[in-house]
Amino acid sequence: MDKIRLINYIKGDCTEKDKIEIMSWIQEDPKHMKEFMALRKLHDISLWHDYAQNDKEKGKVRKVNFRKMGLELLKVAAVLLIAFLTFQYVLPEFKKPVAIVPHEMVIPSGQHAEVKLSDGSTVWLNSETKFKFEETFTSDVRRVSIDGEGYFDIAKDTKRPFIVDVNGYQVKVHGTQFNVHGYTGDQTLRVSLLEGSVELLSAKGNSLVRLRPNEEAIVKDETINIRKIQDTERFLWREGILNFEKESFAEIIKTLERKYNVRFHVENPKVLEYECTGKFRQNDGVHHILKVLQLSHSFNYKYDNKQNLITIQ
Questions:
Q1: I need a labelling partner for 192 at 20 to 30 A (CA). Which of 86, 91, 97, 107 fits?
Q2: Predicted pLDDT of residue 54
């Protein structure tokens, strides 16, 4: 299905014929539903960002009418109610101000998003990241949680610290720039400080280490190692740049799976020990990246389109 037609459908800007065809297409295959919901999620992220930015500039709470953007989604929900109830959209009360309730954003594979928080902080979220936050921080602590990767530019507020919950740890700051990389299932948590100061705490709030600019903490098996940041260009992922500096092939595979929504199978385990260096645009595509890496490392690969599987030989 053409993405422009789907986006127009989400916006409520399409013909009755398009509405019928798109609803039928969504019901045909669970993959169609997944694709539709991914676009819907990104559309909501952009809408929320615009609303939050306008509210900050005007200094008041905006009364948001969700009727137009939610009408078509309600029609689909009538057919696929259970699937849609898993997503927390505020649709019934169209004329009330947005409620102060926790939000959760899930960034689809191959995408990244920029979010402006109510305190003026900005967060960039990488592919397959889950991010929970309050639309308006009402307590004396600004608290969010992340499962994945995020780059944080935190607005300074000495009276209200900013805390990020990630993989059983807390990152506490007042105003700074830092990157957090902590996906569930990964063996390591990495907190990298670019500006200011951050403190790594245990889940109970006990101080473990304080970082200085250009330092990063790498946590593995409850052991914390501090080292200098060797390559700041790896944080360019938020601009669609993939930069690998002596990165293990195993870690590169994880990145490519998230960025291109593709699975890998490695038949030759020695390949996983390769250290690779390269800088790519995400738009270059996974095949271009693999072909470039083949120039300096010995391996072959084949792609199974039906299974969406890349086998490394």
A1: 107
A2: 53
